[in-house]
Amino acid sequence: MQHSKSSTGRILMILILTALSIVSQAAQPKHSRPNLLFIYLDDFGWKDTGYMGSDFFETPHLDKLAGEGMVFTNAYSCASNCAPARACLLSGQYTPRHQIFNVGTGPRGNAKYRRLLHVPGVSTLDPKIKTWAHALQEAGYRTATMGKWHLSEDPIPYGFHVNIGGTHSGGPPRGYYPPHGKVPGLADAPPGEYVTDRLSQEAITFIRTNQDRPWMLYLTHFAVHSPFHAKKELVSKYEAKPSGQLHKDVTMATMIQAVDDGVGKIRATLDELDLTDNTIIVFFSDNGGVAKVTDMAPLRGYKGTYYEGGIREPFFVKWPGVVKPGSICDEPIISVDLYPTFCDMAGAEFPKNQPKDGISLVPLLKGQIDALPERALFWHFPAYLQVGAGIEGVESRDPLFRTRPCSIIRLGDWKLHQYFEDGGLELYNLKTDVGEANNLAQTHPQKRQALLERLIQWREQVGAPIPTEPNPVFDADAEAAAVRSKRLSMM
């Protein structure tokens, strides 16, 4: 059978177009929406990475990622300890809305030293609240949480398809080495396996399994929360390393390197699967570092205080093709901003009729520095956090409690603390006094009053409960004696 020239030409054209189509499809990403890798550490201080200034801890992989993205110098958690920080993060709401104020609901510290009855709040995130995991799940993302959860017995109802390690527990399951008990995904841990390494490997498995669809991975390491269990293979390395002026803890150094080594392996997997250019990486911590184990200097305070060292965190975003590599942002941002930001990144919808306390950071990430409106940031803690043994009075307001009931506002360079027991007010200009050493409440009465009025107005808007009922067992003499004793021991 003979083919005409026109017929042969059509066949040739079809073959050419088919070949071009195959080549074009191969050159396209596996899906158009970006993947999201959210690395969230526990009790990790503002200066615990190399890129933020550590002189002993080693984080080369995190440092490289930070250099390829935008580093935020004024990034805040909504709380200075674990559970409320995570509740704010997942819900996009400040503490008065979800009512998780502390770790647990019981009173903290010696009852004789507490002048007020605390507001207990709740210990479980209301399942009616839609999290950003719900929003991304509904937008077609495969979602996973790996590591610490701390908001309920099971994270799956909160928008996750996969859970590895997540329970209501605030620390690693029985420590960093097995056995881990019946913790989801970790019950089969072999002897000698470091849990940080296991979570990194689970993250790699999840990425490989879901490489052909959009995914969101909440890699919420237990590290570097207590108990402080060193990664044994790294101890000798840091014992031989000279101490830094800022950092020197060998155990902490091994725990941090274990995280960083895992980040390096995850990055290599993204490269291998050609997912690097289509994956956003966000890095953050839930609150400040633990006193005496790390140091946030020049910031004042540590985990459990509402001075800068307790709430200002390391934060960066790497978004290939959107964020300018090596960029730095000094704009104050806070963890409730991540919910609307994730929605914008993924093309998901923020739930209708649900309070939204944050704003999307996407304009900042795109370099629109003046795009965000002037706004205040808020903190509310109507409870108590006692000091731990050996850290009495370390950069806190008094030697008995890391924090007593208080509210905080930051607006521009100014930050006001209000304490409910004694009506104490502390005013700081963070531009000139980032260490919060000079209380300007008496010398700047107009600024003090303006911020206080705005803080009170915000509390009224969100229905923030304030402890007012006197504690019937409070003993002023016992408190004064304890304060004197602690201060003498510190001299």
The percent of residues in helical segments reads 25-40%
Instruction: Give the uncertain stretches in residue-range form.
Output: 1-9, 11-28
- Succession of helices and strands: HEHEHHHEEHEHHEHEEEHHEEEEEEHH
What would you say the CATH architecture of one domain is?
A: 3-Layer(aba) Sandwich
Q: What is the mean pLDDT? A: 93
- Categorize the overall geometry: globular
Number of strands: 15
The helix count comes to: 13
The CATH topology annotation of one domain reads as Alkaline Phosphatase, subunit A
How does this structure look, described?
By secondary structure, the chain is α/β, with parallel strands linked by helices. It has a domain at 32-372: 3-Layer(aba) Sandwich (Alkaline Phosphatase, subunit A). Helix content is 30%, strand content 15%. It has helices at 5-27, 60-67, 82-91, 95-98, 132-138, 195-209, 235-239, 250-272, 308-311, 338-346, 362-365, 445-462, 476-490, and strands at residues 35-41, 70-76, 142-147, 162-164, 215-220, 279-285, 312-318, 327-329, 333-334, 376-381, 385-386, 401-403, 406-411, 414-419, 425-429. Strands 1, 2, 3, 4, 5, 6, 7, 8 and 9 form a 9-stranded mixed β-sheet that branches. A 4-stranded antiparallel β-sheet has the order 10-13-14-15, covered by helices on one side. Strand 13 and strand 14 form a beta hairpin. Helix 6 packs parallel to helix 8 (250-272). The longest helix is centred in the N-terminal third of the chain and has 23 residues, at 5-27.
